[in-house]
Amino acid sequence: MESNSKIVALVGLPGSGKSTVGRHLSKRWGIPFIDSDHEIEARTGGPVRDFFAAHGEAAFRDLEQAVIAQLCADNGQARILATGGGAVLREANRQVLHQHCHVFYLKASPEELYQRLRNDKTRPLLQVDDPALRLRELFEARDALYAEIAHYVIDSARLSSHQLLHRVAMQAEMAGIVPARAQP
Ligand SMILES: Nc1ncnc2c1ncn2[C@@H]1O[C@H](COP(=O)(O)OP(=O)(O)OP(=O)(O)O)[C@@H](O)[C@H]1O
Ligand SMILES: O=C(O)C1=C[C@@H](O)[C@@H](O)[C@H](O)C1
Ligand SMILES: [Mg+2]
């Protein structure tokens, strides 16, 4: 990875805490938080699930790849980036993330994710008859891909979201990726 990179990328399954941790780190460090799904929504003018339904997954993945390449381009600006849960499925995304960002894999078991998300109706991938099974399948298919690109694996088992945030912040600050800042 480029040693002067100031991009912290958060990867992991739906519910792993990317948005929660990303928002808090953004406040703590005073740098922007960008979510690739939100960037795509800003460009297409509607929710990701509508784009999926209208154009299919392959078209979504093409757009996602283009967006991630742009978000990882070095412009000297420090930032926190969360990627859509499926971004690691493409080799090109794995390469660009690993090379240009400090990648943190927020790892959680499918059982734990199910407990967090069981009442959530906003995640399209989980609106199926058996969301617990779906999470197990996603974990099986993706855990090794997240781990492959990660510079840091943060296991969130038995951590509250506050403790998880603290772990990521400490790791990044100790590694000198961002200057340590007093919490607002
Ligand atoms: N370590 C944790 N312990 C308990 N709950 C957590 C933890 N991390 C996140 N949560 C809760 O789980 C839910 C999902 O978290 P969040 O939206 O941050 O996940 P995400 O990785 O951004 O998911 P997605 O990929 O779908 O955008 C939130 O309600 C959040 O408060
Ligand atoms: O895990 C996935 O494949 C996805 C996760 C979301 O973040 C979105 O990017 C989209 O719904 C696909
Ligand atoms: Mg999110």
From TrEMBL:
The coding gene here is aroK
Localization terms from the record: Cytoplasm
Q: Which reaction does it catalyse?
A: shikimate + ATP = 3-phosphoshikimate + ADP + H(+)
Protein name as it appears in the record:
Shikimate kinase
Chain positions recorded as Mg(2+) binding sites = S19
> Part of which pathway?
Metabolic intermediate biosynthesis; chorismate biosynthesis; chorismate from D-erythrose 4-phosphate and phosphoenolpyruvate: step 5/7
User: What lineage is on file?
Assistant: Bacteria, Pseudomonadati, Pseudomonadota, Betaproteobacteria, Burkholderiales
Enzyme Commission numbers on file: 2.7.1.71
Please provide the record's keywords in A-Z order.
Answer: Amino-acid biosynthesis, Aromatic amino acid biosynthesis, ATP-binding, Cytoplasm, Kinase, Magnesium, Metal-binding, Nucleotide-binding, Transferase
User: In which residues is ATP bound?
Assistant: G15, S16, G17, K18, S19, T20, R123
GO BP terms: amino acid biosynthetic process; aromatic amino acid family biosynthetic process; chorismate biosynthetic process
